Amino acid sequence: MAVEYKDYYEVLGVPQDASQDEIRRAYRKLAREYHPDLNRESDAEERFKELGEAYEVLSDPDKRERYDQLGAQWRAQERAPDGRNFEDFFGRQDFGGDVRVEFGDADFSEFFERVFGDGAAAQRSGPLRGLDREAVLDLSLEEALAGGRRRLSFEDGGSVDANIPAGVREGQRIRLAGQGGAGRDGGPSGDLYLRVRLKPHPTFRRRGEDLDLDLPIAPWEASLGATVPVPTLTGAARVRVPAGSSSGRRLRLRGRGLPKPGGGHGDLHAIVRITVPKQLSEQERDLFEKLAEVSEFDPRESRA
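The structure corresponding to this sequence follows.
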């Protein structure tokens, strides 16, 4: 098994024997180029963070030396100097899509020997606990609210059944005991941690535990007032549109949002969007023309 290796020298575009001045100049040049305030490309922020991570390591002689020796696992070596916390050396694996695991083709003992020396594996005996793993679990807002049992499939062909608690939140971790890496020499298996990531919704927009949605309203409903249906995560509801509502007015449905950490739910805000017909019948056109003749309303004047 092998962790994904990130080449910090490649990130900064410098050779492995680059001097500290070369590293500093490369970082400053690229940081200006990819700063999110100056670069509007979609990947600029992620690229800027990656540059900062690379510079943090390569600009520090001690960190750079450990990185050159251990590659992606240099941080883990600091946390486990006695070699017992093997999980840290492999890191947490992220899983995109539904849930998937990406493994390399290197052998465990090969990496073990790289970190501890050629004879280290032979010196260790007794059962070893398996690796903990972490996956990103993508859920729709409806799935997160309802919870339930799901079968999760992995890229290596494996699968696991998981009970998703109702009302899970963005970033919450769900522990599946014993579903991580297999133990060695009779040791127990590690655990699998599912980190919840809420997928974008075609109707609702998240603001913490509150939800926003656009509510199309006809001109006459906005002018005269009406009670109209509105979708929610748990089914249709109805909301009263006050007479004289303009586009942008927010209508709140209490408790129809996402679960709050301390209990209760956020609110759902239906935002009025006045919508006009794309095509008018003859009768509709006549009525609108009559309204235009008799109405003294000037939307531009009211905005001034």
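The radius of gyration is 29 Å.
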